[in-house]
Design goal:
Layout lengths: L18 E6 L3 H5 L1 H9 L8 E6 L5 H9 L4 E6 L5 E6 L2 E6 L4 H9 L5 E4 L20 H8 L6 H14 L6 E4 L6 H16 L4 H8 L5 E4 L7 H11 L7 E3 L4 E5 L15 E3 L3 H24 L5 H4 L3 H15 L10 H12 L8 H4 L3 H18 L5 H19 L9 H10 L7 H4 L10 H14 L9
Parallel strand pairs: 1-2, 1-6, 2-5, 3-9, 6-7, 10-11
Antiparallel strand pairs: 3-4, 8-10
Helix pairs in contact: 4-6, 5-7, 6-7, 7-8, 10-12, 10-15, 10-16, 12-16, 15-16, 16-19
This protein binds nicotinamide-adenine-dinucleotide and D-Mannitol-1-phosphate.
The site of D-Mannitol-1-phosphate (44H) has 10 residues, from helix 10.
Length: 473
């Protein structure tokens, strides 16, 4: 790999940037995607009044705040192509970072500031606190109930509601809320969650005000962004000569499609390659079912066959076969998307998955399966069931998860899932029989009663249970 010399500072005057966006959840993806798009504009001298103020709501986010502060909130973004091409950029669009557990009032006052016109989120699927049973915001969650009674909230919806309440009291128009998480109808989900929270916590008409006044454009986001580790820090040091405590490494591909509904304005994102549309749903369905669904299809079989990296898994014929068959099933549930050749999109996906240089791990994809399998994978089989079609590959992908989960629990560990205790209970109830997990996991819904799905799932379990870890590749 050969890289050009990258300056340690962005090539624009950051003193002149003023805040316009608050972003909750400054993880690797925000830094490879939304912050990168804004940086593209700043390099052209536009959007100087849309600087990003990052916010961390979790205690562990203090580390990101400290690292960024140490680096004047700048960091190195390295795009690694599959053919060895390297593009490195020093990103300067984040101008501050607030840590809510340390100073919640600073966050609330910033949310109430008229300068802030957009609040965006990357808080993972789990951050939306959706009930498994109803698919809606879970108002019975103990943390939500506690937050509804707190003067100074701690959760994302508590913070947003309190910030918007201050604005309403002060006669300041509400900011636009933009979810950038991989969730079907992410703006709609955020609206329903925030309104539900406001109804629980405030009896002064705040919920109705939010429902009537706040815009929640839906968005589709895409860029494969692995976790940063020592190897990535070393790469930045060795290749670029830069000491960066928390660089971001990602693929060259990036896409952002957003519904153009911003009452208080927005950066001229279209100048940076963002697609502003009336309806994001077709783009979102394509991306979540084809890309994220494939990630789910490869993750658990990949782990069972002993793979560490995604490109390794995608070099294993057994994994590729499952992913290709899953894609055949998924493609039939994706309607045409304006301006996109779906066959070419699918081929490009396989190339992206094969990128050996970004070192994306199978483990990252296999985190929080109980959020991701029902969101990305099962809707394919559910749609096909309604159309009278079978989905054996989707069932086999879910079977790989079940076998992996039983192995994880039996080996004394736990699946890397925020609901690990529920999985462990289901494994215990089923007598460690992976086939028994289907009936015990509500999120399979009607598929549990579909004989063809059950048969393919059980067959997958029998087949995958014979895999000797480490035999793959
Ligand atoms: N990494 C990718 O390839 C990628 C690509 C597209 C979309 N995304 C979306 O971005 C999300 C984050 O990915 P990442 O790679 O940045 O992960 P990350 O682990 O680097 O960062 C996650 C961030 O979410 C915050 N968070 C988690 N739970 C929260 C909660 N309950 N309340 C408030 N904040 C919470 C954390 O504080 C952290 O800042 C994904 O879950 C996905 O929805 C990621
Ligand atoms: O980030 P998640 O949890 O929604 O899903 C894991 C991966 O599928 C995801 O991060 C992809 O890499 C990403 O969606 C690519 O744009």
């Amino acid at each position: 790999m050969v890289a050009a010399v990258v300056p340690n500072v962005p090539p624009y005057d950051r003193e002149d940037i003023t805040p316009g966006i608050m972003h909750i959840g400054v993880g690797n993806f925000h830094r490879s995607h939304q912050a990168m798009y804004l940086d593209r504009l700043l390099r052209r001298g536009i959007a100087m009044d849309w600087g990003i103020v990052g916010v961390g709501l979790l205690p562990g986010d203090a580390r990101m705040g400290a690292v960024l502060r140490e680096q004047a909130f700048t960091y190195t973004l390295v795009e690694l192509a599959g053919d060895g091409g390297v593009t490195a950029t020093r990103i300067g669009s984040i101008i501050d970072h607030l840590h809510a557990p340390s100073d919640p009032i600073a966050v609330l006052e910033s949310l109430a500031s008229p300068a802030i016109r957009i609040v965006s989120l990357t808080i993972t699927e789990g951050g939306y606190n959706t009930s498994e049973a109803t698919g809606e915001f879970d108002g019975t969650d103990p943390e939500v109930l506690a937050d509804a009674r707190r003067v100074t909230p701690r959760t994302v919806f508590g913070m947003l509601a309190a910030g918007l309440r201050r604005r309403r009291e002060r006669g300041i128009a509400p900011f636009t809320v933009v979810s950038c998480d991989n969730i079907v109808g992410n703006g709609d989900v955020t609206r329903r969650a925030l309104v539900a929270f406001a109804r629980l916590a405030h009896d002064d008409g705040l919920a109705e005000w939010i429902e009537g006044e706040v815009a929640f454009p839906n968005s589709m986001v895409d860029r494969i962004t692995p976790v940063t580790g020592d190897a990535e820090r070393a790469l930045v040091r060795d290749l670029l000569g830069i000491e960066d405590a928390w660089p971001v490494v990602c693929e060259p591909f990036a896409q952002w499609v957003i519904e153009d509904d911003f009452p208080l304005g927005r950066p001229a994102w279209e100048e940076a390659g963002v697609q502003l549309v009336d309806d994001v749903a077709p783009f979102e369905r394509m991306k979540l079912r084809l890309l994220n669904g494939s990630h789910q299809a490869m993750a658990y079989l990949g782990l069972l066959r002993g793979h560490t990296f995604v490109n390794e898994a995608m070099g294993d014929p057994a994994v590729v076969e499952l992913v290709e068959h899953y894609l055949d099933e998924a493609a039939g549930t994706v309607p045409p998307v304006a301006g996109i050749d779906l066959a070419a999109y699918r081929m490009r996906l396989m190339e992206r998955f094969g990128n050996a240089n970004i070192r994306d791990t199978v483990e990252r994809l296999a985190t929080d399966a109980t959020d991701r399998i029902p969101t990305f994978l099962l809707p394919v089989a559910q749609d096909r069931l309604r159309a009278g079609l079978a989905s054996p590959a989707t069932a086999r992908a879910a079977a790989a998860w079940a076998v992996h989960s039983v192995r994880a629990v039996r080996s004394g560990g736990a699946p890397n899932d925020r609901r690990a205790d529920r999985i462990a209970a289901a494994v215990a109830e089923s007598g460690a029989d992976a086939a028994g997990l289907l009936a015990r996991c509500e999120w399979f819904g009607a598929l549990r009663d579909d004989a063809a799905f059950v048969e393919a799932f059980e067959q997958g379990v029998r087949e995958f249970a014979t895999i000797d870890p480490g035999a793959g590749g």
